[in-house]
What we know:
Elements (H helix, E strand, L loop, with lengths): L6 E5 L3 H12 L3 E5 L39 H4 L23 H14 L6 E2 L2 E10 L2 E8 L10 E5 L1 E4 L6 E2 L13 E4 L13 E5 L3 H11 L4 E5 L7 E2 L5 E4 L2 E4 L4 E4 L4 E3 L2 E4 L3 E2 L7 H4 L2 E3 L2 E3 L14 E3 L6 H10 L7 H16 L11 H11 L4
Parallel strand pairs: 1-2, 1-7, 2-3, 7-21, 9-17, 10-11, 10-17, 11-13
Antiparallel strand pairs: 4-5, 5-6, 8-18, 12-13, 14-15, 15-16, 19-20
Helix pairs in contact: 7-8
Amino acid sequence: MPPRSLHVAVIGAGAAGLVAASELRREGHSPVVFERAAGVGGTWLYDPAASADLLGAGAVHSSVYASLRTNLSRECFGFSDFPFIADEGVGDGDRRRFPGHQEVLRYLQEFARRFDLYGMVRLRTEVASVRRETSASWRVTSHSTSELAGGGGPVQEVFDAVVVCNGHFVTPRVANIAGIGSWPGKQMHSHSYRVPEAFHGQVVVVVGYATSGFDISRDVAGVAREVHVAAATCVEMQRTARPNLWLHPMIERAEADGSVVFQDGNRVKADAIIHCTGYKYSYPFLDEEVVGISVDDNRVGPLYKHVFPPHLAPHISFIGLPFRFEYEDWVAEQCGKEMMEGWRKAMYLAARKNMVDRPENWRDEWEDAHLLSEAYQDLTKYF
């Protein structure tokens, strides 16, 4: 048991929040998890109703589209002591190595059940503000999202510590395109994209070619007349294996006649632009002046090792900000845990290479069987 059991507010019941709550309780603390949605899972809790503001977040948290599959294999994706294995006993389960979002949600729900986390999660409860009460306590104000339309006042509680796990894929970042104000077509951010049918027979420009741009461009190409992707890594127009899908350099400008002009001088008359341009880190419940934390181009600081504000540690922390092996190994070492397995790192890198080598079927054809056997040898102790 720790010297003193702390009453801890965990903001968000996605993957990070669930793990944080489980580990806090393991160490003898008393966590309460605030989740504004109707279930656990965070961004993996698919919402077919996209935001009414096609370029903003609106009231919709999830950014998952209907066809989304993981860009990490099951073996990489799973928690170290709770492997993400295909459950042969689930009749409608998705047994693919890179499964769809429904399977990820099932996995997180099962994690919450296995480690008895549901009792500490307050669903449909949104944190409105977090303020310092004393040098070692925090006043958390929350309200019920199910009562917003019909009343129900805010609830204030005092906690010893706060763990911020509110996710990174909510507040859209939109490309700054010269002339877009007079361009007559439809725009949306990938946050609001769900299914491709609305683009049937259209000419669509996708801005960005990371995971969501890669997936959505192919999803839309199945129904659109043409799809043109503006990719930062592209220096001239390129054809792809799909006859109606082209890669271009980034957009130079948009014009009032509906044209989109790329940096290499090529132009298309487009009906729609989909911004697959990522997200902004956002903490609307934190008062920057009081907490002393600011966000500048997704750099959150000042934070020691991307976790603790130095002047407030350890009473408030941020979970899951960077995506680097070195950082994750450092965190594991500080927590007295084993560093990330070599096979897990190699498997991730192999998948990234496979995505380039086999862009149309990289999730279903792979050449890392030696890593698979190594992974399952390592994970059998948790089965």
